[in-house]
Design a protein that fits this description.
Layout: E1 13-19, E2 22-28, H1 36-43, E3 48-54, H2 55-62, E4 75-78, H3 87-99, E5 106-112, H4 114-126, E6 133-137, H5 140-146, E7 151-156, E8 159-166, E9 171-174, H6 184-201, H7 203-211, H8 213-217, H9 221-241, H10 256-265, H11 272-289, H12 297-307, H13 320-328, E10 339-340, E11 343-345, E12 348-349, E13 357-358, H14 361-369
Parallel strand pairs: 2-9, 3-4, 3-5, 5-6, 6-9
Antiparallel strand pairs: 1-2, 7-8, 10-13, 11-12
Helix pairs in contact: 5-6, 5-9, 6-7, 6-9, 6-11, 10-11, 10-13, 11-12, 11-14
The structure holds nicotinamide-adenine-dinucleotide and zinc ion.
Length: 375
C-alpha cells in the first residue's frame, strides 16, 4: 500500500469570505463532506447540534450516496422545493427546536440547496435571537451563489425573499462529489450563474469556462472544484465590498432584471437558472442596443450558455408588455425608470450611476423581441 488514495482525500481549498462582523471559510473539495464532523466541532464548539435538511438531500446523505455519513444527530427535514421556503415552515422548525428544548447553545447545520440554506439561515438568525450555523450546500447554485453573502429569509405571498435577515454562516462546506446525484436541469441552472460571474467580473474565468465545457458538463470533480472556487471568490469580493447593497453589489443582478420578469411571466415554469440564461442574452442585446457594449457581446455570452445546454430563445410566444410591467416594479428602479445592471464587455460592467443604467422601454422591448422563436 503506497501513496495516498487517488481521489476523495485531497486537502480541500478554503476561501475566506469577509463581512462586517468577521469572516467565514468556504471549504471546497471532492470528499470534503468527510470533514463535516471535524468542521462542526471546530466552528460550533461545545454546541448542541441540530441539522435542518432537504428531505431528498438527507436521504442521499443517509444512504451513503455521498460517502459514509460522518455526522449523525437530531435532524429536522423539510419537503424539497421552493414551496417550503415560507413562514409556516420557519414556524414549524422553530417550534420543533423549542419542543426539543434546544437552548442558547444551539448550533445548526443546513444540508440542501438554496431553499434549505435560506431557511436554515433565517431560523438561525431568529432562534432565541440568533444562533450560529454551518451550511452544507448540495446544489451547484447553493455552492456558488446562495451560500455566499449572508442573506437569509423566506418568501411571502406577495413575493420572493421579502422576509429575512442578514446572518452569515460560521462556515460553508461544499463537496463537488455530492453534485453527481443532482438532476441535470438543476446542475445546468447553476452554470448560468457561473457564466454571469465570468461575464461581470473576470474575462479569464469566462475563457476558462469556454475551454472547459466538456469537463464541466461531465461534472469532473477537480474541474467543478475550480469552478465553484472562482465563482465564490468573485461573489465574495463583490459582497464584502458592499454588504447591504446600494453600490457595486448591483452587478450581481446582471441578467436578473429580465430573468425575474421571465420567471414570473412563465409562472415559474422556467427555472431560475434558465431565466437567468435568457435574461443574460436579452440584457447583453440591450447593452449593445444602447451603446454600452460593442457588437459581439451577446453572441459570445449566448454561445457559451447554449453549449451548457441552457435556453437562449423562448419557444413559445410571450407578452413583452406584461414582462415590461413586471420590470417596472423592480427594486433597482429610480425616477420611475427601469434600471438594469449592464455588461460593458466580457469581464467588466458598465458603471452607469451606481452600477445600473436607465434603459428606455422601447429598447427593452426590442431586446426582448430578440428572444422570440426563429430570430
Ligand atoms: N441567499 C442568497 O444569497 C441566495 C442566492 C441565490 C439563490 N437563493 C435561493 O436559493 C433557492 C434556490 O436554490 P436551489 O436552486 O439550490 O434549489 P433547491 O434548494 O430547491 O434544490 C433544488 C432541488 O434539488 C434537490 N437536491 C438538492 N441537492 C441534491 C443533490 N445533491 N442530489 C440530488 N438532488 C438534490 C432538492 O431536493 C430540490 O428538489 C431559491 O429560494 C433562491 O431564492 C438565495
Ligand atoms: Zn440568480
Amino acid at each position: 500500500v503506497t501513496g495516498p488514495p487517488s481521489s476523495g482525500s485531497q486537502q480541500p481549498d478554503s476561501i475566506l469570505v469577509q463581512h462586517s462582523r468577521g469572516s467565514y471559510p468556504v471549504i471546497i473539495g471532492p470528499g470534503s463532506l468527510q470533514h463535516l464532523g471535524d468542521l462542526a466541532q471546530d466552528r460550533l464548539t461545545g454546541r448542541r447540534l441540530a441539522m435542518i435538511a432537504d428531505a431528498t438531500a438527507y436521504a442521499l446523505y443517509q444512504e451513503g450516496r455521498w460517502g459514509r455519513p460522518v455526522w449523525t444527530g437530531e435532524t429536522l427535514t423539510v419537503p424539497p422545493g421552493e414551496e417550503s421556503k415560507n413562514r409556516e415552515t420557519w414556524a414549524r422548525l422553530t417550534d420543533d427546536l423549542l419542543l426539543r428544548r434546544f437552548a442558547r447553545d444551539t448550533g445548526l447545520l443546513g444540508l440542501g440547496g438554496g431553499v434549505v440554506g435560506d431557511l436554515t439561515g433565517f431560523v438561525a438568525a431568529t432562534y432565541l435571537r440568533g444562533v450560529p450555523y454551518l451550511l452544507i450546500p448540495t446544489t451547484l447554485l447553493a455552492m456558488l451563489d446562495a451560500s455566499v453573502g449572508g442573506k437569509t429569509g423566506v418568501n411571502a405571498p406577495l413575493g420572493k425573499n421579502l422576509i429575512g435577515a442578514f446572518h452569515p454562516p460560521t462556515a460553508v462546506l461544499a463537496d463537488p462529489l455530492v453534485l453527481l446525484t443532482l438532476p441535470e436541469r438543476e446542475y445546468r441552472g447553476g452554470l448560468a450563474e457561473a457564466v454571469k460571474h465570468g461575464a461581470i467580473a473576470d474575462s479569464e474565468y469566462f475563457g476558462w469556462l469556454e475551454a472547459g465545457v466538456d469537463a464541466i458538463l461531465a461534472r469532473d470533480p477537480p474541474t467543478v472544484t475550480q469552478l465553484v472556487r472562482r465563482s465564490v471568490e468573485i461573489k465574495a469580493a463583490v459582497v464584502s465590498e458592499d454588504e447591504h447593497e446600494g453600490g457595486r453589489r448591483a452587478i450581481l443582478n446582471a441578467g436578473h432584471t429580465i430573468a425575474h420578469a421571465l420567471e414570473q411571466g412563465s409562472r415559474y415554469e422556467l427555472s431560475h437558472g434558465e431565466a437567468v440564461a435568457l435574461g443574460l442574452v436579452a440584457e447583453c442585446a440591450l447593452s449593445e442596443r444602447i451603446g454600452v457594449a460593442r457588437a459581439g457581446l451577446r453572441e459570445r455570452v449566448e454561445t457559451l450558455l447554449r453549449r451548457f445546454g441552457l435556453p437562449v430563445r423562448l419557444q413559445t410566444a410571450f407578452d413583452s408588455a406584461a414582462l415590461l410591467e413586471v420590470m417596472r416594479s423592480d427594486k433597482k428602479n429610480r425616477n420611475l425608470q427601469v434600471h438594469v445592471a449592464l455588461i460593458a464587455t466580457v469581464g467588466r460592467m458598465h458603471q452607469g450611476t451606481g452600477w445600473t443604467t436607465p434603459a428606455p422601454e422601447g429598447d427593452i422591448l426590442a431586446a426582448l423581441s430578440g428572444l422570440g422563436p426563429g430570430d
